[in-house]
Amino acid sequence: MQINFFTEDASFPSGLKKTMFRSVAQTIVKNESKKKIDYINFIACSDEYLLSVNQKFLKHDYFTDVITFDYSETEIASDVMMSMDRIGENAKNNKVSKLNECYRILIHGVLHLVGYKDKNPEDKKVMTEKENFYLDLIQ
After folding, report:
1. What is the spatial distance between Cα 133 and Cα 93, in angstroms, rounded to a whole number?
2. Which class is 2-135 in CATH?
3. Which of 61, 72, 79, 83 has the most neighbouring CB atoms within 10 Å?
4. What does the domain layout of the chain look like in residue ranges?
5. Can you give the pTM of this predicted structure?
6. pLDDT digits (tens, 9 = 90+) for 36-58
7. Which of 79, 54, 60 has the alpha carbon at shortest distance from 68?
């Protein structure tokens, strides 16, 4: 089981507690899924980098804060790509620190891996409640 943090052309916010977040990610998977973690790679990147990934692989032509690629049906094997530019904008708009918003998006990515969706208002409400619950484990 590995939970890794990589950077492309952007960095995670200073103060990110990777060891503590690994524990939270394991808790999310244990509480919300019967799957086990093989690996999760969290990748920090820019708007431009993630836009190119969004266009190439998902055929979407817009900025997003996170894209989760799940490679396995039986275990969790994933790349979670996160735009630090979007995270910064979200933080400013929501009046929270960039670090807090980064944790929210890390949690959001893991929740997608255990089956949560956010395409309609009802699903978004459930996702936000779960994000808040697990965010409380960090602060």
Report:
1. 21
2. alpha beta
3. 83
4. 2-135
5. 0.93
6. 999 999 999 999 999 999 899 88
7. 79
Q: Which of 63, 129, 66, 138 is nearest to 103 (CA)?
A: 138
Which residue, among 62, 131, 68, 76, has the nearest Cα to 100 in the 3D structure?
A: 131
**CA-only gyration radius of the chain, Å:** 14
Show the tokens assigned to 47. Answer: 């708007």
Q: Are strands 2-7 and 66-70 parallel, antiparallel or unpaired?
A: unpaired
Contacts of 126 (CB under 8 A, 6+ apart): 116
CA distance 84 to 78: 19
| Each residue's pLDDT tens digit, 66-105 | 999 999 989 999 999 999 999 999 999 999 999 999 999 9
Q: Give the whole-angstrom CA distance, residue 40 versus residue 95.
A: 29
- Both structure tokens of 132: 């808040």
Q: First CA to last CA across the chain, in angstroms?
A: 25
